[in-house]
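lol forgot to send this yesterday, sorry. struct tokens for the thing we talked abt
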């Protein structure tokens, strides 16, 4: 039974890689369908706070369930416990804290919510089952450079992600509407600093785990979030071009008004 399940977990990891690549292609063709890109007329939408809390919850609940109802023999080892804790800490923040900090937020289409919910359950089972039952690490793995660098990347990425979300929440003052380009933090260097932080975070987790399962999750995250970040960049460029063109129009208008004023003054002087 154990070799068969271990083989299944590897296959699920390879499937996750394929889903990430497929998701990247589909997002390029169909564009994202939540947040600012959601159609106002989409039927069956879930309120933003409820959607984020519920869709992320399986990544927290499923691992806790797996570790409770199974022997979870590998969790007796420190590396396994730390790696699983890294996964759980992220999703505790995403499902129990982040949703309740959202200010407003656009409702999410039901099918987008359902897909995210299923993925979180899928990935939560894959990561927790592997770490609790099959991942084998030496006791000194926590001092290995791969683990140390991976852990640091995970921590830095999570902090960048949380700080960037804070910037996004405070973009607009009470009563303000419309889209604004975020400034501050890593937004000064990358278009979607929150996505960048999450990609770094899970890349670090994949490195620290040094497993097909961890690497597959890192690849999936990079494929989906990189594509969505490119959409943000296109929006920012279009907005910047509109602002630039508007400024050009204003400058030309002011210049024309000055020319008319000068002509009138000259004409009056000649008269």
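and heres what i got for the seq, position by position
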């Amino acid at each position: 039974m154990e070799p068969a399940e271990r083989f299944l977990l590897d296959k699920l990891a390879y499937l996750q890689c394929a889903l990430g690549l497929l998701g990247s292609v589909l997002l390029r063709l169909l564009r994202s369908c939540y947040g600012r890109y959601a159609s106002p007329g989409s039927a069956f939408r879930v309120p933003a706070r409820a959607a984020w809390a519920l869709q992320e919850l399986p990544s927290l609940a499923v691992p806790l369930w797996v570790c409770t109802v199974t022997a979870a023999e590998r969790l007796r080892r420190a590396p396994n416990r730390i790696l699983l804790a890294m996964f759980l800490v992220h999703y505790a923040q995403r499902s129990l804290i982040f949703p309740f900090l959202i200010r407003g937020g656009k409702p999410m289409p039901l099918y987008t919510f359902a897909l995210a919910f299923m993925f979180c359950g899928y990935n939560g089972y894959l990561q927790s089952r592997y770490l609790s039952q099959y991942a084998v690490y030496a006791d000194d793995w926590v001092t290995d450079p791969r683990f140390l660098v991976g852990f640091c990347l995970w921590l830095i990425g999570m902090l960048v992600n949380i700080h960037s979300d804070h910037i996004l929440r405070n973009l607009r003052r009470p009563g303000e509407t419309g889209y604004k380009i975020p400034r501050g933090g890593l937004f000064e260097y990358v278009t979607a600093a929150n996505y960048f932080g999450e990609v770094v975070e899970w890349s670090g987790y994949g490195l620290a785990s040094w497993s097909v399962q961890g690497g597959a999750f890192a690849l999936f995250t990079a494929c989906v979030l990189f594509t969505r970040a490119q959409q943000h960049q296109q929006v920012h460029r279009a907005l910047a071009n509109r602002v630039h063109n508007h400024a050009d129009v204003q400058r030309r208008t002011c210049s024309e008004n000055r020319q008319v004023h000068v002509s009138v003054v000259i004409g009056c002087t000649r008269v």
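The helical segments are 2-30, 48-56, 58-69, 78-96, 110-134, 145-169, 193-209, 212-270. anyway ping me if u want another try
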